[in-house]
Amino acid sequence: MLEWILFLPILFLPIGALVFALAAPRLSPHSRTWLALLLVAIVIGAILVNIAPINHYIVLSEWQLASFSLALQIDGVVLLLLLMIFVTLAALWLVAPPNAPFDLFSVLVLTAAMLLTLAANLVTVYFTWVLFDLSLFGWRLARDIERDAAVRALALSQIAGLAFFAGAAFATSGYPDQGVLVIAIALWARLGLFPFHWVYPLRGADSRDLWLARGVPLLAAASLWIRWPLLSLGAPGQLIAILAALALIASMIWVWREEQPARVVGVSAWHAVALVPLALAYGGDAGMAFALWLALGAAFAIALFEMALRWRGENRNRWSRLIWLVGLFALAGLPLTPAYLGRVGLYVSIWQSGNGWLIVVAAFVTTLALAPLWGFGLALGGAEPRDPKRSEYTGLGILLAAFAALSLAPMPLAQTLLPELGNSAQGAMLRVIWTDDGLGVIVGLVAAIVPLVASFFLRQPARRYQPQPGAFVPRLARAVDLSWLERALAGVGYEMGAAARNISTIAEENPAVWILLVALWIAILLVYPR
């Protein structure tokens, strides 16, 4: 049995990071960079070892009385998502090597994201969900990223995790409809889309942290949606459509008030990420493939944007503008990009379902979300271009090679690397390429291409727009941002904590309180059976 090789990438990363931490002080900066890349290459090799005709499935623990088990599984979809995480990480490190590539909390984030992606059942998803939240919380505190928001995000994300666990209990105990609704809301919160945008750091992240702050959590959360068909439960289309429409409108409002490139990238990517659950709700048998390609397209866009921002570092480079524009095309889902089949196929599916208003909302929001990105991209070119280093060319080549493989050969990949995705990918091709609904495909192409063209002509208004503090758009953005609700909830939490401290103080000073409390519970237990 070869199932044990599933543990190789999980073990190699933390153990290799420990070895790196011990050896790094004795090495030169150049040697440390290549040692870190060697470790990432070893992890990638450990992931590739899991390519096999059968999926690797391991039960870590099982409770017979409660019918619970902790299990991990690596299949083609998981393997592709893990490769995306670590291949992109290696490419970004080649472009701009970090000073501390394997600090404790970065390793925890990557390991927890790997475990969440590998989770094979609902119970394992919950436990790895908690671990991932704790790792992100520590990573934010270590980098001093929105400390107050990080505490609130941890608390609210834990509530969402408990809601997911409750939904799983409902779904498996005779209440599938209620359970599906709760699971969908919890997974939507895990994606960090409106009104749960507190999951990702938005107000203080450096451009060098884009991949760890947004790319890795996005792929880990998207993996839960992509494997929705494995639940054998239908996705709640109406609920997802409402949440997606709200998220799209919120991103449209926010994007025009942002001034920092890193934050503009994060907000603009939301409109693409919101399409992933829609693909499961409306894609039918092709939904799994649509969701995978949409998630990979958004992840490639974030990686390319971060690469462009890193590449301009000390002196602006002549290639940074082109890299940014490729990321812009990937985000829009143009032909010859990884998200093309997913975006056009989703639009065709929505058109066939009779919900054309969703296509209009998505196209309109995409237009306004991409307009500021044109301005930032065209401004990256400078008067002091420098020739890229060999390592920078290598990192760009690795990322573009992966980009080209997913763009030009999605079907061969689905048939070889992703055998369980074969039927879904075949359905996607039948809906977009070998289709009998020509009008639907035309509508999908128009909805995918026109917004990019229209956003180009809106780039100048987007660059000139300087919102005044009291203007309507900033006030609306602050209201939609829900920071006022976060502060109100935090205030309620502080009041509850103060009340709990006061009660505990009274109980410590007066033992009679404990006697009354015990008597109350005895009375409840006596009365309840009657």
Task: Provide structural commentary.
With 530 residues, the chain is an all-alpha fold. The protein has 2 domains: 3-481, no CATH class; 485-527. The protein contains 23 helices and 2 strands. Strands 1-2 form a two-stranded antiparallel ribbon. A hairpin with a 4-residue loop joins strand 1 and strand 2 (68-74). The chain is globular.
Beta-strand residue fraction: under 5%
Tally the beta strands. 2
- Give the helices and strands as they follow along the chain: HHEEHHHHHHHHHHHHHHHHHHHHH
Shape: globular
**Domains counted in the coordinates: how many?**
2
Compose a concise summary of this entry.
The chain has 23 helices and two strands. It is mostly helical.
Keywords:
mainly alpha; two-stranded antiparallel sheet; 2 strands; 530 residues; globular; 23 helices; 2 domains; single chain; 3% strand
What does the secondary structure layout of this molecule look like, with pairings?
Elements: H1 7-23, H2 29-48, E1 56-63, E2 68-74, H3 76-95, H4 104-118, H5 122-142, H6 147-171, H7 176-191, H8 210-226, H9 237-255, H10 261-273, H11 275-282, H12 287-311, H13 320-332, H14 340-353, H15 356-378, H16 390-408, H17 410-416, H18 422-432, H19 438-457, H20 459-464, H21 472-481, H22 483-509, H23 512-527
Antiparallel strand pairs: 1-2
Helix pairs in contact: 1-2, 1-4, 2-3, 3-8, 3-12, 3-16, 4-5, 4-8, 5-6, 6-7, 8-12, 9-10, 9-11, 9-15, 10-12, 10-15, 11-12, 11-14, 12-13, 12-14, 12-16, 13-15, 14-18, 14-19, 15-19, 17-18
